[in-house]
Amino acid sequence: MPPRRRGRATRQIPIESEGQNKEAECSIPVRRRARQVDDEVDVLAARVDEMELIMAGFSG
Fold first, then answer.
1. What totals of helices (H) and strands (E) does the chain contain, helices first?
2. pTM of model > 0.85
3. Rounded to an integer, what distance in angstroms lies between the CA atom of residue 40 and that of residue 38?
4. What is the pLDDT of residues 28-42, one digit of tens each?
5. In Å, what is the CA distance from 55 to each residue of 12, 52, 58, 59?
6. Is the C-alpha dihedral spanning 27, 29, 32, 36 positive or negative?
7. What is the DSSP letter of 26?
């Protein structure tokens, strides 16, 4: 019969699997954030185009 352990269990996670877990957890929000940034860039680019048209009207 194995000896009893006292106190908390000391289970350690191997370093490799810890890195893989972090990578899997972070990959989805990063993709979502990248899409959000792309959408924001598209909106801002459209506004710049509108401003350029207005400025061209004043200068021409």
1. 1, 0
2. no
3. 5
4. 688 899 999 999 999
5. 64, 5, 5, 6
6. negative
7. H
Looking up tokens 């200068």 gives: 59
- How far is it, in rounded angstroms, from Cα 11 to Cα 33? 34
Token pair for 56: 């061209």
Average pLDDT, the chain: 77
Give the separation between CA 58 and CA 54, rounded to whole angstroms: 7
Which residue in 24, 42, 23, 46 sits closest to 34, CA to CA?
Answer: 42
Question: What length is written for the chain?
Answer: 60
Residue ranges per structural domain of the chain:
24-60
In the predicted structure, residue 1 carries a pLDDT above the cut 60: no
